[in-house]
Design goal:
By secondary structure, this protein is of the alpha/beta class. The strands form two sheets. Strands 5-4-1-8-9-10-11-12-13 form a nine-stranded mixed beta sheet, with helices on both faces. Strands 3-2-6-7 form a four-stranded mixed beta sheet. Helix 5 crosses helix 6 and helix 7 packs antiparallel against helix 8.
Length: 290
């Protein structure tokens, strides 16, 4: 069974900078590159790279045909990507010598997804199929509601975090994927265990995957707390690491691998991703994990 990813596609403008630009500062950059991106596109490529069959749904502008072509090159089914007027989503990304990134995101076509678009895609889905969504597209609440009615297994990567996330029908989510910052914004807690405990107290059936950067990751549900340490590597660009982690984890989770195995594979893939430049272009193939 394929994994349906209803998600964003973006054009990433990447600037190598000595440090993040400060208020009022005009900052020359070392270099400028254009890469494919968007959390949805990145995660579809990561899913496909880890061996999953993937269908991607979403929207791009007329400037985004190359993003659709790239997904096809990675064996992703793009039948439900629509090309419309106006610009595709894009991001302006600053990357420091330490590999940290700062991102300004413009939604573009990703914010033009309508309930009619959602109905077209969900009507094609099969009960029990996995649906992956992120917080970069419009009509998200309606999408989750209709997917739940269809009996889909919903995985939500609540990124980027906004004030609207708490108003989404989170009780319909099977697996919530967040990082430490997003978890703190969502719960008002900062300690990883407190973040997961707060979420599980509010949504007893929820499974939570909390990524912790250099500290690894924590998976929690009503009966388990499983920690996975990070691997120590020489990171040059962390852009796309979370998306790589999400794709590899979900691909193995959907095939009923143990949570421990899912965490190990996802951590290894993310550790390779951060040693390369770019987002989608830095995602490794499963064969590279050894």
């Amino acid at each position: 069974m394929s994994i349906l990813n209803f998600g964003s596609c973006c054009i990433d403008n990447v600037y190598a900078v000595p440090h993040f630009a400060q208020p009022g500062e005009t900052l020359p950059c070392y270099s400028y590159e254009v890469h494919p991106g968007g959390k949805g596109l990145n995660q579809s490529i990561a899913l496909a790279a880890s061996g999953a069959a993937v269908r991607h749904a979403g929207r791009v502008g007329t400037d985004g045909q190359w993003l659709v072509d790239l997904l096809r090159e990675h064996k992703v089914d793009t039948s439900f990507i629509q090309i419309g007027d106006g610009p595709s989503g894009h991001a302006n990304i600053q990357v420091t010598p330490e590999g940290e990134n700062s991102i300004v995101l413009f939604g573009g076509a990703n914010q033009n997804i309508t309930p009619e678009d959602v109905d077209l895609v969900i009507n094609s889905a099969t009960e029990g199929e996995f649906l992956l969504v992120q917080n970069e597209t419009s009509s998200l609440s309606y999408l989750i509601e209709q997917a739940a009615k269809k009996g889909l297994r919903i995985v939500f990567n609540a990124a980027p975090m906004t004030s609207t996330v708490n108003s989404l029908p989170l009780s319909s989510i099977e697996l919530l994927i967040i990082n430490e910052t997003e978890g703190a914004e969502l719960t008002g807690r900062t300690a990883p265990e407190e973040i997961t405990d707060t979420l599980l107290s509010n949504y007893q059936e929820l499974k939570v995957l909390l990524t912790l950067g250099a500290e690894g990751a924590l998976f929690a549900d009503s009966g388990n707390r499983i920690k996975q340490p990070a691997l120590q590597v020489n990171a040059i660009d962390t852009t796309g690491a979370g998306d790589t982690f999400t794709g590899f984890f979900l691909a193995h989770y959907s095939r009923d691998h143990s949570i421990e195995d899912c965490l190990k594979v996802a951590t290894k893939a993310a550790s390779i991703c951060v040693t390369r430049k770019g987002a989608a272009t830095s995602i490794p193939e499963l064969s590279e994990l050894g």
